[in-house]
Amino acid sequence: MISCRFLAKKATNGTVLKRLEQKGAEAYQIIEYLKQQVAFLKEKAILQATLREEKKPQAENIKLKKEIEELKQELIQAEIQNGVKQIPFPSGTLLQANSMVSENVIQSRPITTISSGAKEQIGGGADEKKMEEKIEVKGKKKEKKQQSVAGSADSKPMDVSRLDLRIGCIITARRHPDADFLYVEEVEVGETAPRTVVSGLVNHVPLEQMQNRMVILLCNLKPAKMMGVISQAMGMCACSPEKVEILVPPTGSVPGDKIVSDAFPGEPYKELNPKKIWEQIQPDLYTNDECVATYKGAPFEVKGKGVCRAQTMTNSGIK
Predict the structure, then answer these.
(1) How far apart are the first and last CA of the chain?
(2) Is there a contact between 165 and 144 (Cβ–Cβ < 8 Å)?
(3) 159-172: pLDDT as tens digits
(4) What is the pLDDT of residues 207-247, one digit of tens each?
(5) Can you tell me whether residue 278 is helix, strand or coil?
(6) Whether the Cβ atoms of residue 318 and residue 247 lie closer than 8 Å to each other
(7) In angstroms, rounded to a whole number, what is the distance separating the alpha carbons of residues 259 and 277?
(8) In whole angstroms, how large is the CA radius of gyration of the chain?
(9) What is the pTM for the complete model shown?
(10) Phi then psi dihedrals of residue 299, to 5 deg
């Protein structure tokens, strides 16, 4: 009787454990799906913010032009009130011509004669000078700002050339000791020692397919600890809310080969700050209609060997 009760209780516990495991697996799948949705919404928000930032200089230019036009009209009215004759010149030269006439009129008046008319004329000239200086200062500020932005963009363009993308070969891959949804891989990238990479591919790629596999790594992200294990690079994958595929290097690639784009020449940063650089570049990384990995339409290429691809995913983001 006692043994029967024990067996029945054990069977009940086993059933409960199986249900809990099943519920845990379903909860994990839901969490992964929500993570992907959050990443998608974040990318969309970044793109919208970028578009808003691009529109700001245009609005500032329109406002500045309006202010300059108002100042010009005030200057013309001040000259008319002080008896300066307005000579019709083509647009753009009127202000300069009026200023010259005003200066000549003021210089032709004898300063020693302190009459009321002379005082008014001198006062009007001072107002004109102040207005001209104000317009000139605003113009210089605008020009300086534009030169500064242009110089910054020329010296350090934020494009794919700033990413240290290399071919790697996974030597070994194993489950993370403290996280069932993570792999821990040792990857050869042409350096003296392999790099440790932590990736969340457990639900997308079987463990046996991770062994001795050629991959593409982003090597200049700041190392980050993931569940107690420091990850020294990031594997590049084509991603959608439903599916993830590891990008495939061209045939003949070897660990350490650089991935370049002829349309975006440049040297990678030694280390990226993900919030400032990676998140600006990543929205323009995607596969095209032929599954080729691209940045703004320019393919990921290993010189003399070919382009990098996803296996089946077209028009999908890369991260």
Answers:
(1) 61
(2) no
(3) 898 899 999 999 99
(4) 999 999 999 999 988 898 888 999 999 999 999 888 999 99
(5) helix
(6) yes
(7) 18
(8) 34
(9) 0.52
(10) -70, 150
